[in-house]
Amino acid sequence: MARGNQRDKAREKNQKELAAKKGGNQMSGNEYQREKERVAAIMQQKQAAAAEKKAAEAAAGAKK
């Protein structure tokens, strides 16, 4: 029966740690906006690279 108490205590401790990790957004408004713009710029670069690759493949396919 002692193991049951140990499990309960471990479960409570784990739930406290998870609750602490789940905290909301820690960034201020300016930091959040800068991060959002940074991620958007990265995605635009990826999209442009993918479009160039697709155009190159289409051009290579048209030549054959």
Characterise the protein shown here.
This protein has 64 residues and is mainly alpha-helical. The chain has a domain at 29-64. Helices cover 86% and strands 0% of the residues. The longest helix has 35 residues, at 29-63.
List the helices and strands and how they pair.
Layout lengths: L1 H20 L7 H35 L1
Kindly list the characteristics that best describe this protein.
2 helices; 64 residues
User: Largest beta sheet, briefly?
Assistant: none
Question: Could you list the spans in which at least 5 consecutive residues all have pLDDT below 50?
Answer: none
Helix and strand pattern? HH
Report the strand count. Answer: 0
Mean pLDDT, rounded to whole units? 88
| Inertia-based shape | elongated
Kindly, what is the distance between the CA atoms of the first and last residues, rounded to a whole number of angstroms? Answer: 76 Å
Number of helices: 2
Report the C-alpha radius of gyration, rounded. 25 Å
Q: Structural class, please? A: mainly alpha
Question: Approximately what portion of the residues adopt beta-strand conformation?
Answer: under 5%
Helix content: over 70%
